[in-house]
Structure formats: C-alpha cells, structure tokens
Design brief:
288 residues; alpha/beta; Chemotaxis Receptor Methyltransferase Cher, domain 1; Rossmann fold; 2 domains; 3-stranded antiparallel sheet; 39% helix; globular
Length: 288
C-alpha cells in the first residue's frame, strides 16, 4: 500500500542548495527570509509525488529537468492585476503620438512585457494601444514572456474570474472580453482580436542569448516588479540587454518600488522621463 508520508522540515543546507539552483538557472536571489515560503510551496509538491524528504527531492530535480521546471514554477511569485500602476498607461497615451510621428511609414510598434505572469499586464497594454490606434493610424505587436510555464499557459488562454477583471473599466470590459454563460458564468475571456496582438513565450531573462520570436528592436519594454528579485549584478546584465534590444527613443517601464541608476555608463544612457519611466538615449540623441 502506498503511504504518503509527511515530508520533514527544510534544512538550512537544503535551502542553500535550492537557493543556489534557483539563482543559477533564473537569476532570482532568494534571501534567508524566503526559506519558510519555499518550504511551504515545495511541501505540497513532495506530498503530491510521495517524496519522503527535501534531500530526495533535490536529487530528483538535479536529474529531471521537468521536475526542476516544476520547482521553479512553484517558487516564482506572481502578483499582478489589470492596469497596475496606471500612470504608465497614461504616459503611453501622451508619449506615443509624437514618437510615432517621427517613425517610418507603416511601422509596427513592438512592445515587450518581460515577466508577464498570468497576462494581465500585456492585455492591459494591448487594450491601451488598441484604443490609441483607433484614433491614430498604426499597428502593434506585443511579446509577453515569463520563465514560469504554468502562468504562461494561463495567460495564453486569456480567461479570468470576475474579481480578476474588477480593475477594467466597464466599457472596456464589454468591448474586449466575452462574458461566460452557463457553466462559464462568472468568467471573462479576452476576445480573439486582442489575443492575436499578444504572443506568449518562455524567456529566461538571465540567459546570455535568449531566442526572440520578434527579430527587430522594441519600442517599449515593461519589466515591472521583477528587479526586486535580482541582485545588483544580475539586474545590470538584464538592463544592458534591454538597452541593446530597444530603439533609440524607446522607453523602459519598471516597478513603482524599483529604480534605475541611469547615470551608470555600463548600463547605457537613459533619460528619466517620469517616475519609473526611462528613455533610451543612445549617443546623446533623443527621438523627441
């Protein structure tokens, strides 16, 4: 008879091994204060697969890359909602008309939502851009990425509960979401025409040369409330990557509790536009 034993407590040495694995693979720097969180989230997984202890689970994750991915998914924190930090979206409406006036005819605006979680951020961006491009002629495409494969699956479905869409103004909710009927009552699905504007991909921000489905440079990059999980050196590498992947005059958006040392020459030249918004200023030139 299979008996599910209660796994033992996560030991300090085991936490350090897991912490190092997570850091090497994802760049996320887990502090000692996260030990109980890691123990709680992984304990459920150990019970699920009848693994007797964390030492054995570590052996499994070292040998099995699929289980290692499950572990990373469980540890990754995902907190988001529609139109979070709304001043960023208000800035887009003011900034883009002038930015696009100076672009080549037929330009497709490209946006990267890095750390997109369950999709609320890229869909919020898509709504804002679609509303804008109904007033001015233009096209856009959004790359939404995350390291967590489970949240990407949720995001690609575009289905949300009533409490998850409460931040969406009612006219936009009617315009861009289908309301569930019958057994789907209380659920809201992003309409197909908006979903087609967003492509979801797994991208690890700490990879030296990640594969991008979009060849050209980006005009806007959102990486909000992600840097808080990285140490300074990892943060520097990611910001340098963003700099290389962005058009001159494009903008980087970070979280309200984060900051960018834009004067650091190793990170490229950034002009602070508004709180947590920075413009790429290559060679001292600006597109404004």
């Amino acid at each position: 008879m299979n008996v599910c034993l209660l796994p033992e407590t996560l030991q300090d040495r085991e936490f350090e091994i897991i912490r190092q694995m997570v850091y090497e693979q994802t760049g996320i720097n887990l502090s000692k204060l996260k030990k109980l969180m890691v123990q709680s989230r992984l304990m459920k997984r150990l019970k699920q697969i009848n693994c007797p202890n964390f030492g054995q689970y570590i052996k499994i994750t070292r040998l099995n890359h699929q289980e290692r991915a499950v572990m990373f998914n469980l540890i990754t924190t995902n907190v988001t909602h529609f139109f979070r930090e709304n001043h960023h979206f208000e800035f887009i409406n003011r900034f883009l008309p002038t930015y696009l006036e100076k672009a080549k005819p037929g330009k497709v605006l490209k946006v990267w939502s890095a750390g997109c979680s369950t999709g609320q951020e890229p869909y919020s961006i898509a709504i804002v851009l679609n509303e804008l491009f109904e007033r001015i002629k233009g096209e856009f495409l959004i790359l939404a990425s995350d390291i967590n494969t489970e949240v990407l699956q949720q995001a690609s479905k575009g289905i949300y509960k009533l409490e998850e869409v409460e931040q969406v103004p009612y006219p936009l909710l009617r315009k861009y979401f289908k309301m569930g009927q019958g057994p789907n009552k209380g659920l809201f699905k992003v309409k197909e025409r908006l979903q087609q504007k967003v492509m979801f991909r797994q991208i690890n921000l700490v990879d030296a040369n990640p594969e991008f489905p979009v060849d050209s440079q980006f005009d806007l990059i959102f990486c909000r409330n992600v840097f808080i999980y990285f140490d300074q050196e990892t943060k520097r590498r990611i910001i340098k990557k963003f700099y290389k992947k962005m058009h001159n005059g494009g903008c980087l958006f970070i979280g309200h509790s984060e900051s960018l040392n834009y004067s650091d020459s190793g990170l490229g030249s950034w002009i602070p536009k508004e709180h947590t918004i920075y413009m790429k200023n290559e060679g001292g030139r600006t597109s404004e």
